[in-house]
Write a structure and sequence with these properties.
alpha/beta, 6 helices, 28% helix, 4-stranded antiparallel beta sheet, 6-stranded mixed beta sheet
């Protein structure tokens, strides 16, 4: 892969310290990080390596203790709460390990809850079709499998046409067969829409579907690998 030139995110010397009573936990220790336009990136590392902390800072859900992070021309390090709220609403789609769907709403209505407040959204039907659930849009979460619920969550995240999709262990609660379907949906979003995508995982096999792999350990970026050939989720064995 030839890495694109346009940097969506640029983080430099990011440090994050959590005060836990008398103990301080250093989650990030001077991390430098870039996410490029249109790429599929995997953040790989064990639990406690700092992956989720980094993703939350990029998504405007948390703030670094020190260092700088920018989304294009927006300095997230010094943005106020109103600016961060607008940033999350307009530019970022989130997918978490647990689906956070509203049980009393159908798949279509769960996605519509986002499209109603977005500026230029896809229709719920378009978003659900993109993740292969056009035949399940009138089903409630209780009528869907775990993988289907996660794909509804992905449709909800991409319905507002975000420039960035941030996924925190999106297959962590799923078996491998179902996880492949979810990874295919994420892969389709990235390839079809050109959405810059970052996926957190501790599973090294999943890293083969990425353009780049950022290895994290103990709050540091240990290394960055570029995959010469990006694999489809169906080619993974995990």
């Amino acid at each position: 892969m030839t890495i694109p030139q346009e940097s969506i995110f640029k983080a430099r010397s990011l440090t994050k310290v959590y005060d836990m009573g008398e103990v301080q936990v250093q989650a990030l220790r001077g991390v430098d990080f870039d996410l490029y336009a249109g790429e599929m990136l995997v953040l790989l590392g064990p639990s406690g390596s700092g992956k989720s902390t980094l993703l939350n800072i990029l998504g405007g859900l948390d703030r670094a203790t020190a260092g700088t992070v920018a989304y294009r021309d927006l300095d997230l390090s010094h943005a106020n709460e109103k600016q961060l709220t607008q940033y999350r609403r307009r530019h970022v789609g989130f997918v978490f390990q647990f689906y956070n769907l509203i049980p009393s709403l159908t798949a279509k209505e769960n996605v519509a809850a986002v499209t109603e407040i977005a500026e230029n959204p896809y229709s719920p039907e378009e978003a659900l079709k993109l993740v292969g659930l056009e035949d399940r849009m009138n089903h409630f979460p209780s009528q869907l499998s775990g993988g289907q619920q996660q794909r509804v969550a992905i449709a909800r995240a991409i319905a507002k046409r975000p420039a960035v999709l941030l996924c925190d262990e999106p297959t962590g609660a799923l078996d491998s067969e179902t996880g492949v379907l979810v990874l295919e949906a994420i892969d389709t979003v990235n390839r079809t829409l050109g959405t810059a995508t970052a996926v957190i995982t501790h599973n090294a096999d999943i890293s083969r579907m990425a353009d780049r792999v950022v290895h994290m350990s103990n709050g540091h970026v240990q290394s960055v690998d570029v995959n010469a050939e990006r694999r489809s989720p169906r080619e993974l064995h995990w």
